[in-house]
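Incident review: delayed structure delivery

Summary: a single-chain prediction request sat in the queue longer than the usual turnaround. Root cause was a stuck worker, restarted by the on-call engineer. No data loss occurred. The affected request and its eventual output are reproduced below so the record is complete for anyone auditing the incident later.

Affected input:
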Amino acid sequence: MIVKILLGFILIAIVETINGIIRIKILQKYFRKYTKIISFLLGYLWIVIITKLFLSFINPETLFESFIVGLSWAIMMIIFDIFIGKVIFRLSWKSILNDFNIFKGNYLSFGIILIVFTPMLIYIN
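Output delivered after worker restart:
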């Protein structure tokens, strides 16, 4: 189960990285002040699609196991986001933490929460 969860995370990380590139390169040009919300909604749509596809592959047997899938993905995404910010883009801790700050108009924290609970929602449907 752990390897399958890791494979799901890798796909999520790739898709969310592409989503971020699209936000910067395309959405900002055309949607300016709506860029973050559009990117957030597109990112969540991808999370739902990936979760729907991977949950049957991972095959959790209980609602709690579905929660563990989402929690694992969320923790790995937080680590991935911090790694990319710190190592690749060499951002300050303040800048990285601002990405998680909903009061600054950033939706990353909401996305992480949704990653935690989406497998549970799909499991019960």
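Verification: The CA atoms of residues 23 and 30 lie 10 Å apart.
Action items: add queue-age alerting; document worker restart procedure.
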